[in-house]
Task: inverse folding
């Protein structure tokens, strides 16, 4: 580029005053950067113009400074967001006024790069959050499952406890009820030291047995209760031993009885007692 | 209110960036006449020019971080803010082309030589410089600089061919320079 010719072409004066096209303006910016002579020429014209401007200087109204300083104090208290310095609006046929306002040049490519970077950052953040929340979800899920298990076991425990309580209350009711007769059956001479108790209401005929201390029978055998009336043995049903025997067990209703006896029979019971297998017996009082 | 001491340009910039209100006050005292002169010249109305100047100083305060020393002097930057703000106001007030021309024609201060010159520069005798510019030279500078007119608009106002606007502009500025050298 012929720098001297460029300088004397008039473009510098027109650039400073704002009468060049955008393309010329860009060319000028490049020339200013590349050629110190061009920069010096531009600065010289700029300074001439500024001297001209200074000639037209005029003191602003006296109260204006105070107004501005007051606004500034308000503004400093509540910092307003940065607003870009507006450029004169250039209509289509107009050439924009030269603007020395320092601008941060942001090309569309750069904007896309920023946008892409922002999008990628958001994506990564989202993925991290997803993983974090998924882990949390799994934890919560297993906690929930174990809580459900706990809840279920509490519920069944509660059921069994309330069943036990109901049972205990029934037993207590029987014990309190004067209609019930309690017959303690002691061990026969062959089976000293073993005990079972009958609880019988002659009116309602309800009969219970409490097998306090009976030895565990062989697997194929079972204890059977008999009501004895005038030397005859009447079947009053079989009953369990072990865990259920810790509570009162309901057996068949008994209409009349002078005594009760328990024999060991084959599983399911026998129509008549095996008398040599009698374990306990007791008379009904009065 | 005039500060008794002066700051260098870089001290001024530092102070403004640090939001030092004392520095700002100094800046106002030193530059407000020049900037007010510009606003007044663009808008041709004291009340509008005062509003504009307020806006300009607020922008200087808020946007000082955007000022880039490598791109030009602080005064040039402030001058451009003032010019842009004032021309924006002028356009937003829906001034038509005719109005702009009217404003220039009415500007008796400039064209009668009865100049309202800032005292600090008046003693330099600069007012005489203006008298030596031809009316056309002043108008072409003023239309472009103060009214933000385009080449086409200038061509229409001065009734000169579009192709000669730039040449006339250059000559006007060269004339201005020569006159300034005489001072």
Result:
């Amino acid at each position: 580029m012929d720098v001297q010719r460029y300088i004397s072409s008039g473009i510098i004066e027109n650039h400073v005053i704002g009468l060049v096209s955008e393309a010329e303006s860009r060319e000028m910016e490049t020339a200013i950067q590349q050629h110190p002579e061009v920069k010096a020429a531009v600065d010289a014209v700029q300074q001439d113009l500024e001297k001209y401007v200074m000639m037209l200087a005029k003191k602003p109204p006296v109260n204006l400074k105070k107004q501005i300083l007051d606004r500034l104090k308000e503004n400093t208290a509540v910092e307003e967001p940065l607003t870009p310095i507006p450029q004169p609006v250039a209509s289509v046929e107009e050439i924009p006024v030269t603007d020395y306002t320092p601008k941060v040049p942001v090309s569309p490519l750069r904007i896309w790069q920023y946008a892409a970077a922002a999008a990628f950052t958001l994506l990564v953040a989202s993925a991290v959050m997803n993983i974090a929340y998924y882990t949390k979800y799994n934890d919560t899920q297993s906690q929930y499952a174990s809580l459900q298990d706990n809840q279920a076991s509490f519920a069944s425990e509660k059921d069994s406890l309330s069943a036990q309580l109901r049972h205990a209350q029934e037993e207590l009711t029987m014990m309190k009820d004067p209609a019930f007769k309690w017959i303690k059956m002691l061990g026969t001479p062959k089976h000293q030291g073993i005990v079972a108790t009958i609880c019988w209401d002659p009116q309602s005929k309800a009969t219970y047995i409490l097998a306090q201390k009976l030895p565990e029978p062989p697997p194929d055998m079972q204890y059977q209760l008999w009501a004895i009336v005038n030397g005859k043995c009447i079947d009053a049903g079989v009953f369990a031993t072990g865990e259920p025997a810790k509570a009162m067990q309901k057996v068949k209703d008994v209409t009349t009885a002078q005594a009760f006896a328990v024999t060991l029979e084959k599983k399911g019971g026998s129509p008549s007692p095996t008398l040599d297998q009698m374990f306990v017996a007791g008379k009904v009082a009065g | 209110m005039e500060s008794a001491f002066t700051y260098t340009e870089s001290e001024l910039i530092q102070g403004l960036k640090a939001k030092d209100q004392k520095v700002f006050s100094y800046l106002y005292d030193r530059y407000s006449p020049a900037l007010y002169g510009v606003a007044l010249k663009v808008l041709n109305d004291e009340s509008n020019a005062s509003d504009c100047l307020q806006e300009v100083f607020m922008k200087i305060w808020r946007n000082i971080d955007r000022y880039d020393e490598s791109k030009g002097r602080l005064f040039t930057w402030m001058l451009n803010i003032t010019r842009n703000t004032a021309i924006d106001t002028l356009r937003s007030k829906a001034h038509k082309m005719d109005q702009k021309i009217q404003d220039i024609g009415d500007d008796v201060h400039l064209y009668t030589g009865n100049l309202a010159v800032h005292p600090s520069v008046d003693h330099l005798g600069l007012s005489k410089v203006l008298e030596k510019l031809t009316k056309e030279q002043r108008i072409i500078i003023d239309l472009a600089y103060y009214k933000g007119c385009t080449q086409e608009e200038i061509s229409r106002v001065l009734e000169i061919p579009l192709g000669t606007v730039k040449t006339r502009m250059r000559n006007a500025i060269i004339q201005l320079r020569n006159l300034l050298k005489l001072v």
